[in-house]
Design goal:
Length: about 160
């Protein structure tokens, strides 16, 4: 199952980019044998200042046709890492070819796009900067692959 991270904004060189790239590489290595990956990042920018609606249109175009759509949103489901791993395996085992995680911009995700999502995931009640959410998501994807592979990375 190919995984796509579709996000508003460009990650510039720096610690967030370094961490994201590291976890993407780890996920791709660990996930390959599990039928997960590769993870492709799609960055979009609303250069015309159209707000959430324009960002939603750009994100919608970045999501592959027929992909399972998961938004990252503070109103989403709270899961433990093992639960997230189980959910990821379930989507894979259901025969999904593409899984797209969508991260909105500073104002969040347009309600219309959020309503079309197959699932929504939250990293807690707090609002996180969207650049840090990329790091957190890629780390959790790697952790999920590690859990599914039986590797010692995740400790209870």
């Amino acid at each position: 199952m190919r995984v796509h991270l579709c996000a508003v904004g460009r990650l510039r060189a720096g610690p967030e980019r370094d961490l994201t790239d590291d976890y993407v590489q780890r996920f791709d290595r660990t996930g390959r044998a599990l039928g997960l990956g590769p993870l492709t990042q799609h960055e979009v920018e609303d250069r015309k200042g159209g707000g959430m609606a324009a960002e939603a249109d750009l994100l919608d175009r970045a999501v592959p046709q027929g992909a399972l759509l998961v938004t990252l949103d503070e109103r989403g489901a709270l899961m433990s890492s093992p639960q997230f791993a189980e959910k990821l395996a379930g989507w894979r085992d259901a025969g999904r070819q593409d899984l797209a995680f969508v991260i909105g911009g500073a104002d969040g995700i347009d309600p219309g796009l959020r309503a079309r999502a197959d699932a929504s995931l939250s990293f807690g009640k707090m609002v996180w900067p969207h650049m840090l959410v990329r790091v957190m998501l890629t780390e959790q994807l790697y952790r999920a692959a590690s859990i599914l592979a039986g590797a010692p990375y995740h400790r209870v």
